[in-house]
Amino acid sequence: MSDVEPRTEAGDVLTEVIMRTFRLYGGFLEAAEVMTKPVGLTAAWWQVLGAVLRQPLPVSGIAREMSLTRQSVQRIADLLVEKGLAEYLPNPAHKRAKLLRPTAAGYEAVSRLAKAQHAFTNRISAQVDLDDLRTTLKVMERLVEALDADEWPG
């Protein structure tokens, strides 16, 4: 008897979704690097700042939200603080895990991205039906929930 899981059509389709997601991520990352450069950010800095625009979070919370390692977020957070784009605040829930939040300069840098970001997203979204985009978002949210609920056997 084989230990290999049987292939299913749904599994094959999800594999193609994963492969296209890798391609999309690469394209979006490239676009983000182009957009962030003129305002003195990188795509990674923007990603971490974006996670704390609404509320301060500990590095571990940012890492969980973004599916990044805590160590990589910590390096970026420290750089953002060093550059004056973010600051650490005391965390009433945990003495050692400080909260990260943007400074006025961090909010300003992200705000300066808005024009380029909107131009890019408007250009790309104009080529896809709005209902399809909404459906894509719903499916992506369901896939994230499924991933979060999955108990990886390894």
UniProtKB/TrEMBL annotation:
InterPro entries: HTH_MarR-typ (IPR000835), MarR/SlyA-like (IPR039422), WH-like_DNA-bd_sf (IPR036388), WH_DNA-bd_sf (IPR036390). GO terms for molecular function: DNA binding; DNA-binding transcription factor activity. Residues 11-145 form the HTH marR-type domain. Keywords: DNA-binding. GO terms for biological process: response to stress. SUPFAM superfamilies: Winged helix' DNA-binding domain (SSF46785). It holds the Pfam family MarR_2. PANTHER family: MARR FAMILY REGULATORY PROTEIN, TRANSCRIPTIONAL REGULATOR, MARR FAMILY. This is DNA-binding MarR family transcriptional regulator. It comes from Saccharothrix ecbatanensis. The lineage of its organism: Bacteria, Bacillati, Actinomycetota, Actinomycetes, Pseudonocardiales.
